[in-house]
Structures are given as C-alpha cells and as structure tokens.
Write a structure and sequence with these properties.
Layout lengths: L10 H13 L17 H69 L4 H36 L4 E3 L2 E3 L2 H5 L9
Antiparallel strand pairs: 1-2
Length: 177
C-alpha cells in the first residue's frame, strides 16, 4: 500500500525526489551532486547571530543590575553598621570622660594616685581616637554609598561638582526610582 503512493508523478514521489536531489543521487544516473541551499541561509545566520548577541546583552544587563543592587545593599549595611559603631564609641567617650572626672576627684581627696588619673586620661584619649577612626569609616561608607547610588556628584552652574553635603549626608530616595 505504501508503494502505491510513491508512484512516479505522485506528490510524495516528487517531494522525495526533490529531497534526494538535495541529499544525493537518486540512483537514476544523475551522479552525486549536493546543491547547497543558499536561499535564506545567510539571513538566517545573521538573524541567529543578532538574536544571540541580544540575549548576551540582556544577560549582561541583568547581571549588572544584580551586581549594582548587591553592592548597594552591602554598602548600605556598612553605613548602618558604622552608625551603630559610632553610637557605641560616643557612649564610651562619655563614660571615660565621667570616669576621668571621678578619678580626678578621688585624686584630690587622696583616694587615687596620679598614675590612676593618667591611666584614665590615656583610656579617654584612646576612645577619642577610636571615635575619629569610626567617623572616618562612616564618612568613607557614606561616600561609597553615594558613589554606588549615583548621587555623589551634583549638578550646578559650572557643571558636575562634589559638594559638602555629598560627602557628609546620606542620599535621599528620589521619587520614581
């Protein structure tokens, strides 16, 4: 039954014959020839290349967006951590100032030595130095956050500039972003 539909001149035979011409000889004395189907192949290749390039760009853009969001999150966490650390260091400075006052009063009353007062002054100095270092870390993380969020530079008359507020204040969220 299957052979009945493959008779010469039938639609299936013509289709099979065309296919065999593209693949190779049909055994009817024509010899082997392999015509290269060039119609649309170049255009298909160009289209496939463009689609692949577009997909690579989309992947790169999505990856860049994830990297920016991650870095913003990390930097914002650093700012928060540095703010908390500064609060703790400020409390330590206040405590050491009070402890120094107490130690000086005890010294005047004869209950403490000069060495005790000097040790307390040294601890106060160390805590003040720690406060300066923590303030520096906070300022650095604020600048990094502004850089990561694109709010470090401000526009003005001469063009782009870095102002004092950009270096000291946290960026504020903008509407629509």
């Amino acid at each position: 039954m299957a052979l009945k539909h493959l008779g010469e001149g039938s639609h299936a035979f013509v289709t099979l014959e065309r296919l065999s011409m593209m693949v190779g000889s049909t055994g009817r004395g024509k010899g082997n020839h392999y015509p290269y189907p060039t119609r649309g192949v170049a255009a298909d290749g160009t289209l496939a290349g463009s689609a692949a390039q577009l997909r690579r760009q989309q992947i790169s853009t999505a990856d860049l967006g994830r990297q920016i969001c991650t870095q913003l999150s990390v930097t914002a966490s650093e700012v928060t951590r540095n703010q908390q650390q500064l609060g703790l260091v400020d409390a330590a400075v206040v405590a050491y100032e009070q402890a120094l006052d107490v130690e000086q009063k005890k010294y005047r009353l004869g209950d403490a030595t000069l060495l005790d007062v000097m040790n307390m002054q040294d601890r106060l100095t160390e805590s003040r130095l720690q406060r300066i270092a923590t303030q520096l870390e906070l300022a650095s993380s604020v600048v990094q956050l502004r850089f990561e969020s694109g709010t470090l530079l401000s526009t003005g008359d001469p063009g782009f500039a870095v102002g004092r507020e950009s270096l000291t204040a946290l960026p504020t969220p903008r509407a629509g972003r």
